[in-house]
Amino acid sequence: MATLTTIPHTPARTTVGLELRALGKTYDGGVRAVRDLSLTLPPGQLLALLGPSGCGKTTTLRMIAGLERPTGGEIHVGDEIVAGGGHWAEPEHRGLGMVFQSYALWPHMTVFENVAYGLRRRRMGKPAIAERVPEVLDIVGMAGYENRPVANLSGGQQQRVAVARALAARPRLLLFDEPLSNLDAVLRESMRLEIRTLQQENGITAVYVTHSQEEALSMADVVAVMNDGRLQQIAPPEELYARPRNRFVAGFVGLTNLLDVSVRQVDGDTATVRLANGALTGAVSTRGHGAGDTTTVALRPEHLTIRTGEPRPREGELELTGELVSSMFSGNIIDYFVRVPGLPDLIRVQDFPPRTAAPGDRVVLTARAARCVLLEDERRDGASPCV
Ligand SMILES: Nc1ncnc2c1ncn2[C@@H]1O[C@H](COP(=O)(O)OP(=O)(O)OP(=O)(O)O)[C@@H](O)[C@H]1O
Ligand SMILES: [Mg+2]
Question: Is the CB of 55 inside a 6 Å radius of any atom of ligand 1?
């Protein structure tokens, strides 16, 4: 398969970013699809809008595109305000390119005609179009396909044409709405890399809507997690994964164990916590909590180690003891499920083979304090602190 390449002097470079200020959308009928959404995207970066179905991703994207009118707040593309504060720029005046889940190509037209369509509407001259179309087709690895009817192309090829069409008019912002959802898993993964490479090499500012955490983490410079119309956290992928802010983000992005705790003592960035079952467990990484707070610790399964034997509490670590209930071998990883007395959920641990414990064994789980993150939420049970 051809890969996307950069051609010299490609003019798709943008010099502006995107800013949303307290953006809101309440549909007729009262659905509050987006609430008080504020974020800033530097030029040349890819923002992933990630969240479950119905959380307001498409609505946000359509407002940026000018296909939907905000009911509150402002949208700035670079130095220009395109919506809000009494301003309104029509979609065709916003300098945007869009790629949708359904490729939205004209099936009866050729590849050339599909890419040229928007340029004609912008009144670009024939010679300029004849030059520009092959240029963008080359960027997406579809050079030489000009005269093919799009109906005869594979899904992946059609999506490349859709990307070429979005790039053709040199947008200052590219918007993607689940563009890979209709492709099979293998193609999806290779297209991810290709879109990311194209975006980076050409310095394109992009907003990429997805409900796939894998897609968001692997492609984005910065990920905005939404739930129920509200921004939950915005951070680079590594930070989002390592330091989720609340229970929703911790649970939506990756696997996580949640432990209800009360904070006993705080010393700089680390805190000593007491589990809901009364056991004093050790140090965790805090985020501005104080002694007496009741909250939740998020802990990734791969950040726990498991061993048999006696507890050996150590400075700067969190330690739990329990009984191994079951373990699952899945090739490169073993999943262990451990019952810790007094905790409602089994604790999940992931480690490399070989298995180090058998069901029924008493096991000790440990994690470094920096890996155990105190969340901002109140404890689930709302119980009073047991300090
Ligand atoms: N035209 C509309 N009129 C009324 N409500 C709408 C309209 N479009 C969307 N909604 C509602 O707004 C909320 C957000 O919808 P939106 O399409 O933005 O979600 P999404 O995050 O893109 O979801 P998905 O992952 O399923 O595409 C939903 O509750 C949806 O039902
Ligand atoms: Mg959507």
Answer: yes
